[in-house]
Amino acid sequence: MPKVTLSVIKADVGSYVGHSCVHPELMETAEQCLDGKGKELLIDYLVTHVGDDLVLILTHERGTDHGEIHELAWDTFMQATHKARQLKLYGAGQDLLSDSFSGNIKGMGPGIAEIEFEERPSEPVVVFLADKTEPGAWNMPLYKIFADPFNTAGLVIDPKMHRGFDFEVHDLIQNQKIVFHCPEELYDMLVFIGAMGRYSIKSVYSRTLNEMAAVSSTQRLNLMAGRYVGKDDPVCIVRCQSGMPAVGEVLEPFSHPHLVAGWMRGSHYGPLMPCSVHRSTPTRFDGPPRVVALGFQLCHGKLVGPQDFFADPAYDEARRKANQIADYMRSLGPFEPHRLGLEELEYTTMPQVMEKLAERFEPID
Ligand code: F6R
Ligand code: MG
Ligand code: MG
Question: Which ligand has its closest atom nearest to the C-alpha of 19?
Answer without folding.
Answer: 2
